[in-house]
Amino acid sequence: MGSVSPDYDADVIQSISGSVCSASSDGLLLLSYLGLRLEAPILAQRGAARLRKTPAGLAPGHGAHCTHFVCNPVTGELSRLPDPRCSDPVSKVMCGYHAGLLTRSNGGRDGPPDRFAVAELHGNKMARFLSGTGEWEVVPDAWRMVLDHDVVAFGGRLWWLDVTCGAISVDSFSDRPELCFVELPRDSVLPAAAQDGCDCAGASGCGGSPQHRRLCVSEGRLRYIEVSREEPFLLSTFALDEESSGCTLQHQLDLSCFRFQGCPHPWLPLKEGNTPHIGFLDPLDDSWMYMSATIATLENTPQVTFVVDMKKEMVIMTFAYRSGVPSFVPCVLPPWLGSSQIPSAGSDSLCSTC
Question: Which of the listed ranges 14-28, 85-99, 259-273 does the model predict with the highest average pLDDT?
């Protein structure tokens, strides 16, 4: 993505991975592709085949290269954002993992957006792209956070969750973006040592991870969700106050007591070793929670996704899968999405329809 592939006989290989980073409030998706040049010396060859040493790290002189696309999931339209130049300070801020997509219609009307903004927090800086200018820029002195989560678009702002202490939001369209902070519920705030001691919650084990704490939008309100990592598995959901000043508890359930209604499942109730992971709240029903779990207590360690009805206090659906970790990016598709186009991302952007 954005560079010529290495020569087949070189001691370097190219690795490309892609993911759905986030969704805007009107159903557009932000896709990110991360390209890496890895050292993989050729040990032997037979004809066209090459036996290489296992890649051990980035090739000298080559850093990670991230490319972003905005996608209309109904029409298949793609709009590629221009890549920042290697010498551009933006390229040192972007890592592709904490980017969000915000859209806006002129006059604040409901309907297809006229412009969009992509923003990414990394360290204490924010990189952002505005479709109106077609350029990337760096906004310094952002709030330093422990990030390892999807970015949520809500209320005309992008929201990042710091699993140690709270959520930060910003209007990425603003000429002078200002960050606003909302603290997590008191019992969810981690000690100061956890807040200062790592750069990535998931990697450094500072108490929360993307699988156990998350922000979601459901029934038009921003929600914070958490599930305890040890038995009893207490699932809690909170709603952000109207003034964005704090969180109010909405539901709290002990998943260790649940049994599937209507059909026996040997992995229920959940026990130690079968830790549940948060997926998302249904965008249209704040009582339906999508979750997953790896069932270590059963043969072959099966993996399941399941839906909890928090009002009825029961598991109502289950789905089995064989490998990988499920990734959830909920989005609502408005009726006009199929007949609208993505706003132009500048003269260097690439648009196509699959």
Answer: 14-28
